[in-house]
Request: fold
Amino acid sequence: MRNCAPVRLLVEKPRQGIMVASEIALGIETIDAQHEELVDLFNRFAHAIENDAPLGDVEAIVQRAIACANAHFEAEEELIARTNYPHAEDHKFQHRHMRLEFTTLAGDALAAKGHDPVTLEDLADMRAILMEHITGPDRQLAEHLKAAGVK
Reply:
């Protein structure tokens, strides 16, 4: 993924909000690697919020996640254009909507910072949006890409 170095969060035991990359594997190497990176960043963000990390650390994770998400959406949209995906406009619209949702929810979580119900609800909302997109529209896109010979 452009401008995105791998980041890992070691988790001793699963916590609410933590995602596992294997839950979302689609069988397209590039997309799976990008999703794994986004999952890692989501997990780091959740861990930082849940453990009251310094605001600067949390903001750095958010900035990196935004950059990685934008690079991922651009890469997916290049594949969409290259393979004439029939649901291209809808998928691009979903990307724009997710950018707005994540920016808003991340801002809310940073403002509320901590274990209050708003922050934990924001984390759950972000996880649900991401999982819904990957297991729905992205899975449909992956099937199209595989049929077009993308591995």
Observations:
- The first helix runs from residue 29 to 50.
